[in-house]
Write a structure and sequence with these properties.
Helix content: 40-55%
Order of helices and strands: EEHHHHEHEHEHHHHEHEEHEHE
Low-confidence stretches: 1-34, 37-67, 149-156
Structural class: alpha/beta
Mean pLDDT: 84
Strand order of the largest sheet: 3-4-5
């Protein structure tokens, strides 16, 4: 798709870089236990033409620390191979190049190699490389990341449903149908009442019927933000004022306390209702375990935290951004468009394939034209190098994983 890419060389000038596989200079590195030992044939790079006007740095007794402004041929090839899913081959490229970067404190090559061994699950080779890293940098190497273990316990299916704004005969029917569908499909449905601002008689009757229907699945509802909604309902009623149009508000208020588990409050309001309308008070459903106000507050706080975590998880980009998962780039663009100064966490992205990187380049140009100051944070070293090769780092701020 892309034959050449522009990037800046050590002297700051733009040069054309070929993306085809490169031949590797140098001899094979010393093999440590657990490291890949078989490396494909390498062709030595041609000797540079002597020039009297330039120093030959190879003949000077000075160790040159490679600038992070340039990408070595081995780093570029390893990044391309990784983008194509060739993890083992990419690791061998950097191992072959190790004699060239070892001793020069070139952190980029080391971190790319660590990441390749991590993703390839080569822990023994990773730890062996760590010993060399300590000698070179005199500091602790990156820590091996344990693979996430999948729990055998099946999580309880939970859903989220919110009512908001002014509830009226014009909009309540659609909301209630959504409620029924979610309640049917989830073991636990969290009903968020926080954003309700007003309610009419018809809406109160519809919500009452829906909550009463939920008794067929005891303890299957959890109310969130009920305190404000309870005050809204109380504003519609008065003890001793017998208005038939107010009955749904009374009964919904009673039902809310049933669902919450507040038995004492339930019985007090039920008695006031019975006095006002001269009828028998509703009875407490014993299948609902009574709860204290403190317990309800604790449960609600936990529910809000879980809802927030679920929303964050939904917004995370996880795994690989590849041509067979076009929804990943779509989601990335949605996250960028949703914020004025987007900060996109790529910590869980292991790989971006070549085609997707090309599409990301087009997106980055669009974001730049829109005035978006996009930041990618927690980017792994392999993806970081690929984004540099593609010049995406010239349009998007890209920060390495710490």
């Amino acid at each position: 798709m892309f034959s050449f890419f522009r990037k800046k060389g050590p002297d700051g000038q733009e040069v054309l870089t070929q993306t085809a596989p490169l031949t590797q200079p140098g001899s094979a590195p010393e093999t440590r236990p657990g490291m890949p030992s078989e490396v494909g044939p390498a062709t030595a790079a041609p000797s540079p033409t002597p020039n009297d006007n330039h120093y030959d740095l190879s003949q000077l007794s000075i160790e040159v620390s490679s600038s992070s402004d340039s990408i070595s041929p081995a780093e570029e090839q390893a990044a391309m191979m990784h983008a194509n899913g060739q993890l083992a081959a990419a690791a061998k490229v950097l191992l072959l190049d190790k004699p060239n970067f070892a001793g020069k404190r070139r952190l980029e090559s080391w971190m790319m190699l660590f990441e390749l061994l991590q993703q390839h699950n080569q822990r023994e080779a990773y730890e062996a490389l760590g010993l060399d890293f300590v000698v070179e940098f005199e500091k602790t190497p990156p820590t091996w990341r344990e693979q996430n273990t999948v729990s055998n316990k099946k999580p309880t299916a939970s859903g989220y449903f919110a009512l908001s704004g002014k509830l009226s005969i014009e909009n309540i029917d659609k909301s209630i149908q959504t409620f029924y569908q979610l309640h049917k499909n989830n073991d636990l449905l969290r009903v968020d009442l926080t954003k309700i601002t007003a309610i009419d008689t018809i809406s109160a009757a519809e919500i009452l019927a829906a909550l009463q229907q939920s008794h067929k699945k005891p303890n299957s509802l959890q109310l969130i933000g009920s305190a404000k909604f309870i005050e809204i309902l109380k504003s519609h009623i008065e003890v001793g004022r017998r208005q038939p149009a107010e009955a749904p508000f009374w009964l919904l208020l009673i039902e809310l306390h049933q669902v919450l588990g507040l038995q004492e409050e339930f019985e007090n309001i039920a008695i006031d209702y019975a006095i006002t309308f001269e009828v028998s008070p509703p009875s407490w459903d014993p299948r609902q375990a009574p709860k204290s106000a403190a317990q309800i507050a604790s449960d609600e706080a936990q529910a809000k935290a879980e809802i927030h975590a679920a929303e964050q998880e939904k917004n995370r980009l996880i795994g690989s951004i590849s041509s067979d998962k076009p929804e990943m780039l779509t989601r990335l663009n949605e996250l960028v468009q949703a914020h004025a100064t987007p900060v996109i966490d790529l910590n869980a992205i292991e790989r971006i394939d070549f085609d997707s990187a090309g599409q990301m380049l087009n997106l980055a140009m669009d974001w730049l034209q829109q005035g978006k100051q996009v930041r990618f944070v927690n980017v792994n070293p392999l993806v970081h190098t690929l984004l540099r090769v593609m010049s995406i780092t010239e349009m998007v701020s890209v920060e390495l994983r710490k």
